[in-house]
Specification:
Rossmann fold; globular; ATP binding; 337 residues; alpha/beta; ABC transporter ATP-binding protein; 20% strand; ATP-binding; ABC_transporter-like_CS; single chain; 13 helices
């Protein structure tokens, strides 16, 4: 039995990450009546390397979107820091503007992120105008639309969002991110609102952009199937912390943490019966002592943790924060080495 033990490193891992969270904490005022502040992100180390796609997975309320927003500079951390290309993030308006040219956000709902009164051309050109692009705007917009799979691009210039399919709207959003030639994109549930027939096309597009442009990506999702199809590495988040991380093949074929096992058990192709988690959903203003998952843990509930001699540790002994590197790690008293 172990606590947050590194098992094996990823092969050929570069020494310096492109984007890194170090000891990151983000707290918010709690609901009225709660004594503690809500610890949405409660100690996270996470690295994303050049050309790497990392999937951040977990159920709603686990803190993954807050973590992503903090990495983008939209939510300043309460403690810890974010670094990009080896430099700590500067939260001045001028520095953030320059940073957001290099790191772009792709939202899950293209209908909500596109102005219905703007044409496709204006939607994609908006970033160029904000950053006072000095080159040929029409050429840059055409290139971005082509890279996003909307060809010929001129055919889409004067269309409005309501004239496009859901997949085309998502491609316009991606083109709006690509037009500034970013080094990394943060995609928050990028295919959640799309039909199954279109999801594969968008995932293939993201993989092609990584291959052709060397683009890095953090993909925020509750869908482990999406992580399997797109990611090099996966980080599983629960109640403000990453509880398991490693190469996607390792984590999703031999999950070590009971929470990861439960998430995987509900996939249609998963063997055996789905794990039904009991207890209340995670509440960031009421983080329990010990392992933060113990109140819902099926290993503890079945007596398996007791038989392994770790039940008391599960209930009362906190686990260290996993480091942000690429090695396989798990924050669990019960998980085998």
């Amino acid at each position: 039995m172990t606590t947050a033990a590194a098992v094996s490193p990823l092969p050929s891992a570069p020494s310096a990450p492109l984007l890194s969270a170090e000891g990151l904490h983000v707290t918010f005022p709690a609901r009225r009546g709660d004594a503690d502040r809500a610890r949405a992100v409660d100690g996270v180390d996470l690295d994303i390397r050049a050309g790497e796609i990392v999937a951040l997975v977990g159920e709603s309320g686990c803190g993954k979107t807050t973590l992503a927003r903090s990495l983008l500079g939209l939510v300043p951390p309460t403690a810890g820091r974010v670094t990009f290309a080896g430099r700590p993030l500067d939260y001045s308006s001028r520095a953030l503007k320059a940073y957001r040219k290099r790191v772009q956000l792709v939202l899950q709902d293209p209908s909500g992120s596109l102005n219905p009164r703007h044409t496709v051309y204006d939607a994609v050109a908006e970033g160029l105008r904000i950053h006072r692009y000095g080159g040929d705007e029409r050429e840059a917009v055409s290139m971005a639309l082509s890279r996003a799979g909307l060809r010929p691009p001129e055919r889409f210039f004067l269309r409005y969002p309501h004239e496009l399919s859901g997949g085309q709207r998502q491609r316009v959003v991606i083109a709006g991110a690509l037009v500034l030639n970013p080094e990394l994109i943060v995609a928050d549930e990028p295919v959640a609102s799309l039909d199954a027939s279109v999801r594969g096309e968008i995932l293939a597009l993201l993989l092609r952009l990584r291959s052709e442009l060397g683009l890095s990506a953090l993909v925020v999702t509750h869908d482990l199937g999406l992580a399997w199809n797109i990611a090099d590495r996966v980080a599983v988040m629960y109640l403000g912390r990453i509880v398991e991380t490693g190469a996607v093949e390792d984590v999703l074929t031999t999950p070590q943490h009971p929470y990861t096992q439960a998430l995987l058990s509900v996939l249609p192709e998963a063997p055996g019966d789905p794990v039904v988690l009991t207890g209340e959903p995670p509440d960031p203003s009421r983080i329990p002592t010990g392992c933060r998952f113990h109140a819902r843990c099926q290993i503890l509930a079945t007596g398996e943790a007791e038989r392994a001699g770790v039940a008391d540790a599960c209930r009362g002994q906190d686990l260290p924060v996993l480091d942000g590197g690429g090695g396989a790690q798990v924050a669990c008293h019960w998980a085998p080495r």
